[in-house]
Specification:
three-stranded mixed sheet, 5% strand, globular, two-stranded parallel sheet, mainly alpha, 58% helix, 362 residues
Amino acid sequence: MDTITPAHTAAERQAAPDRTDKARIKEIIAHCNAYKGSDTKRSILQLIVSFACFALAYAAVLAAYETHHYILCALAMIPAAGLVVKLFIIQHDCGHGSFFKSRLANDTVGRIISLLSFTPYDMWRRAHNFHHAGSGNLNRRGSGSVDTLTVREYQALPEKEQRAYRIYRHPLTLLVFGPPVYVLLMQRLPPVNYPFIESYNALTPAQTWRSVMGLNIALVVFYGLVGMTLGWAAVWLYIATLVTAFWAGQWLFYIQHQFEDAYWQPQEGWSYAEAALFGSSYYALPRILQWFTGNIGFHHIHHLCASIPNYRLQECHDAHEDLQKINRITLRESWKSAWLALWDEDKGRMIRFKDLPRKSHA
């Protein structure tokens, strides 16, 4: 198997904390807690800059289209999609209550951004917080995560279900066709049970109906007005931009927990802090991509302390050497993770289907 070689040196890997170093983990927790809490001025500035940049980028998309420069239009969609990702990170922070001190301000901004992200704010907030609460826990899969089976679970499935899981875990399904289906269709309805994992019922239709259907009505009204004012091309071009953003967003969400040395444990051996630090990647992106993705690459810090707003993750990371060594994956290295599909209980790592014994293949 081609392994994902961490970008840091062997000496640095040896110096990094491991899962048994409880005192060191406790010290890291204390360090991260010092960065909790929003700075209202920084939050407002980031919000204004992000919306302004998005407006300019999307104006460029429309201008290129109206002047029949279709290649320029497609190129302009890339930064516009990147800014949708950045705005979604702000919505994400609002869902954690970390972007503003006020719950009302967080919820108001989160719901406004949902008009651009097509993501029902209240439904997603609840599902995502359940994801944080059970990340890496084999007994609490089923809400806000990519479905992941263990080797033994997969081997115990009937051949038909094995084949279905292989289709589901194929990169074309998860990373290419899945994002537009999810954003345009699945988020328009209350969530249903997951296909391979028994859902632990984090959500019910009664809890999410208002959020989902309320957003659906708001989308019809908002984009109806956009279409009547700017023309329906402006709506379709935005949907194309949104799908592009979700391709990027799905990859980010995938790589943040689906990497070779990820953390999975049954309930009796599971630890929230260990799951956060060792089950979430530090995705070391180029600075420009880090800006567009709102520092979400520091995912091990975010999962350990979701109350840190995105604009403080960098300084938290830079101020503690250990955080720079845990699960560091570069953009180039990350592509190998696309084919990981199963948690190997015996080896304690994610593997590809091709790494199973031949007799276990569907």
